[in-house]
Amino acid sequence: xxxxxxxxxxxxxxxxxxxxxxxxxxxxxxxxxxxxxxxxxxxxxxxxxxxxxxxxxxxxxxxxxxxxxxxxxxxxxxxxxxxxxxxxxxxxxxxxxxxxxxxxxxxxxxxxxxxxxxxxxxxxxxxxxxxxxxxxxxxxxxxxxxxxxxxxxxxxxxxxxxxxxxxxxxxxxxxxxxxxx
Length: 181
Prior knowledge:
By secondary structure, this protein is α+β, with helices and mostly antiparallel strands. Helix content is 31%, strand content 36%. A hairpin with a 2-residue loop joins strand 1 and strand 2 (30-37).
């Protein structure tokens, strides 16, 4: 079995580098999966993204905030891929955190200021009756692809990683804005 420090390091790498996650939600129209671009926050582990308010996954989150999801990367050394699955709850970002989390999202996604200014949407898009919302999900459980098991017997399984192992050492500068850490 893979030692916990290695599982934590793989998890940190995925959280910081995958950039896209697939969300699985459920609502009045049934189950739905959506891929969204996220940035991480730590302690506790949270993932931040924005979507249209009327998107099916957004409506599903309004109906039931319990979600699951996955992140993965390909083109890696060794097996060539790695991935994680998680369960979480999600909520829209409130007006008291909107400016700070919007800044964090755009700074993490677009470190170059000139590129960021091209992509940044006005905050009015995310307020009141605006068409978009930032969403924040808090991870409750996290599993990694069990690479050791796969290499031993080609059985596709997952191994649970305790959340406290994921809160420990984020990449430099990735903890999140001070007011929402």
